[in-house]
Amino acid sequence: MEFLDTTIGCLFDQLVRNKGEQKLLHFKDASISWQEIDRISTKMASDMLSLNMTKGSRIAILCQNSPLYLCALFAIWKIGGVAVLVNPSYKTHEINQLVDYVGFRGVFCDDFCIKKLQKTTTVEFIHYIGMDAWDSLEEQSRQLPPSEAERVAGQAREVQPRDMACMLFTSGTTGVPKGVELSHFQMLNVAKRAVDAMRWNEGDIVCVSLPLFHVFGLSTCILAALFHQGTLCFTSSYKSIEIIKCVAKHRCTVLNGVPTMFLSMLNNPEKSHYDLSSLHSGIIAGSGVHERDFLKVVRELPIPHLMQSYGQTEASPSITFSPYDDPVEKRAKSTGKAIPDVEIRIRDTKEDKDLPAGQRGEVEIRGFNTMSGYFHLPAESKKVLRTDGWMKTGDIGYLDQEGYLYIVGRAKEMIIRGGENISPQEIEEIILSMDGITQVKVFGMQEEVIQESIAACIVQTKNYSAQAIQAHARTYLADYKVPKYIFFFDQFPEQSNGKVDVKKLKAMADQQRKNAQPSPALSSR
């Protein structure tokens, strides 16, 4: 497939000339045009240039989704800066760690985060972009002298496609997250392939329910819009009821999200009061989805053209997509095939050799979408990047004869029990087959002698006992794969991007184990 060799700013500028007053996004009661986003982002870019922030400057965005978040993104890209996208849930000490690590000079923030930044003294430039700032910025943008607008345009012409556009962060479980720098070229071409795979067009209305600091939302919602040129609808929060209301109000046709988001919508009793029949397409990704859950979402929400995709921040992010015309039963089983110009192989990590179709090993990829390395972390980069261009994903999976990729788990999540490697996903699938169990997360808990014992955390609508779940698992699994510990929860803790917060869940389970009397199976709420 032919590559697009331009920058995000240049493509946006072209669309502004063509679209003008056409509405780009809806947020709460406001409808905002391409031209308004362009004008305000130009004003923001002018402010940054006045502070000698130019090409290569690292500038953070630390706020909730909003139209001004979008303006800040395009403002940074217009001057050739690197948009450092920070999770607004970070505490002050975590933000300070990132300031020390990345060295960003300025930051755009909202009411939610400004108090955290007041304790950060090394940032030169703090630009407030709370929603009450819209009218003021809109008025200032109309008064911007033509000479300032031309200065911004001149700076934009200096930006090259392979310049860095964004720095995003991996969700590391310990220490400061690793920074992943992605270029204009990478992000635009991945977004274009997503639009081609999903067959989105100008008539589509996209519900933006993913956080924009996460590469999934940034790519498939914001950058994808530069290609399909449809309409974006921002939700006021990530709560399932707000997503449901947004889809119903704006007659959204596209909904992208993580599995827990779709399942939360299905389980929300308010869903039946809203008409969601406009939905026809979407991407489910960000974490693994069980076959049963995929089929349930497609049939009960419903979204007939829901597609699986596999990706990573380090891959800009897309690696695979389900073929559009595949039957739903086939889409439910795998993450699809590699996008154009990306290769996938399965590697035996012990013998360092390629594995044939059907055999499990570590998934490795090679293509235009892979990062050049983690920011200022050469040792960490060397662990995942081979000298011949292949990148280790850390995921365990296999390819079938047709080239479909199946992910069975993370290498670091494999449970080692008495020398046996056990896949958590295999156990989760068996437990999920029980009627009334809505969520399962399986992991290892440290034990003496046998290294790890298997724990299963469960959300259910029925009242199964721990022993009943073990008995069911024992029917289909070898005894050594049956969970020793069973923990029941009303709901799993989640990260701000909608994924299950496994680190927190493990800590909660471990505390329950410590508080309970030792027994073959522990049950706690």
Low-confidence segments, given as residue ranges, are 518-525
The average pLDDT score comes to 92
Shape designation: globular
Ends distance: 52 Å
Helix content: 25-40%
In what range is the share of β-strand residues? Answer: 15-25%
How do the strands of the widest beta sheet line up side by side?
6-5-3-4-7-8
Number of helices: 17
Please count the beta strands (DSSP E, at least 2 residues each).
25
Radius of gyration: 23 Å
Helix and strand composition category: alpha/beta
Please outline the major beta sheet: 6 strands, mixed
Any overview of this molecule?
- This protein has 525 residues and is an alpha/beta fold.
- 35% of the residues lie in helices and 24% in strands.
- The longest helix is centred in the first third of the chain and has 17 residues, at 34-50.
- The N and C termini lie far apart (52 Å).
- Residues 518-525 have low confidence and may be disordered.
Name the features.
single chain, 525 residues, alpha/beta, six-stranded mixed sheet, disordered C terminus
